[in-house]
Amino acid sequence: MAAGKKAKNIGKDAKGKVKEATGKVVGNESLEAKGRAEQAVADAKQTGQKAKDTLKH
Asked: Residue 51, SS3?
């Protein structure tokens, strides 16, 4: 996986975790859901990149 894309996906995952935690603390279900959604998108992109890398080798 390209290092830049991997770092970007890790950053998005971390951002999603922060949003989710913040949403839980302040009781904002919308923010919590957005955080979980961002994590899911980052995980999906990371999985796609890993699949591409596997096919290349």
From this structure: helix
Residues 6+ apart with CB under 8 A from 8: none
pTM of the model: 0.82
* Helix, coil or strand: residue 21: helix
| Residue 54 in tokens | 């596997």
Q: What is the pLDDT along the chain (57 residues), one digit of tens a residue?
A: 577 888 899 999 999 999 999 999 999 999 999 999 999 999 999 998 888 888 886
d(CA 16, CA 55): 29
